[in-house]
């Protein structure tokens, strides 16, 4: 395309409102950890509460304007190893019976412990039913202006 052929937009006619420019969308970067394997005491049935069960967790962590993209410095980033350690600790001390409650606990902990604008968490229990590879839940939470979670 030749720049000398681009025409300027026609001036607005008197009496016609010019639409305002759309507000700029905030930039959000996403880091992810997929297939995180932990074990936890979890489940609604008595037989599920006697021994830890395997869980598979997928995380998507949203960051507003990640400084590390420009600085290339871990101090400006969310350390994936620290995220993984936090999730493992939560699984070890879990007392929730529902996957939904466990996922919420993970969301709350990650939003409180890291500079994140949002989290998406999927938690699944593999091989619970013969007719399904896994069962699970996915939640998405954003940091609220008034506090954590939303």
UniProtKB/TrEMBL annotation:
Q: Does the keyword Transmembrane helix apply?
A: no
Residue ranges that the Swiss-Prot or TrEMBL entry lists as coiled coil: none
In alphabetical order, the GO MF annotations are: dihydroneopterin aldolase activity
What is the E.C. number?
4.1.2.25
**Which stretch is the leader sequence?**
none
* Sequence ranges assigned to domain Dihydroneopterin aldolase/epimerase in this UniProt record: 31-141
* UniProt keyword terms in alphabetical order: Folate biosynthesis, Lyase
Pathway the protein takes part in: Cofactor biosynthesis; tetrahydrofolate biosynthesis; 2-amino-4-hydroxy-6-hydroxymethyl-7,8-dihydropteridine diphosphate from 7,8-dihydroneopterin triphosphate: step 3/4
Which reactions are catalysed by this chain?
Answer: 7,8-dihydroneopterin = 6-hydroxymethyl-7,8-dihydropterin + glycolaldehyde
* Database matches in Gene3D superfamilies: 3.30.1130.10
Record's superkingdom? Bacteria
Question: What family does the Swiss-Prot or TrEMBL record give for this protein?
Answer: Belongs to the DHNA family.
Function, in words: Catalyzes the conversion of 7,8-dihydroneopterin to 6-hydroxymethyl-7,8-dihydropterin.
* NCBIfam families according to UniProt: folB, folB_dom
The identity of this protein, by name, is: 7,8-dihydroneopterin aldolase
Could you tell me which species this protein originates from? Aromatoleum toluolicum
């Amino acid at each position: 395309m030749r720049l000398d052929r681009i025409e300027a937009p026609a001036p607005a006619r008197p009496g016609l409102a010019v639409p305002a420019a759309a507000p700029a969308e905030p930039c959000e970067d996403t880091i992810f950890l997929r297939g995180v394997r932990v074990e936890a005491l979890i489940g609604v049935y008595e037989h599920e509460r006697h021994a830890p069960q395997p869980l598979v967790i997928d995380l998507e962590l949203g960051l507003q304007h990640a400084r590390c993209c420009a600085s290339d410095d871990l101090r400006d980033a969310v350390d994936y190893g620290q995220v993984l350690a936090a999730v493992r600790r939560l699984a070890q001390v879990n007392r929730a019976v529902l996957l939904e409650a466990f996922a919420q606990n993970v969301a709350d902990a990650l939003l409180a412990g890291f500079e994140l604008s949002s989290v998406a968490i999927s938690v699944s229990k593999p091989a619970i039913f013969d007719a399904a590879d896994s069962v699970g839940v996915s939640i998405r939470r954003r940091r609220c202006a008034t506090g954590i979670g939303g």
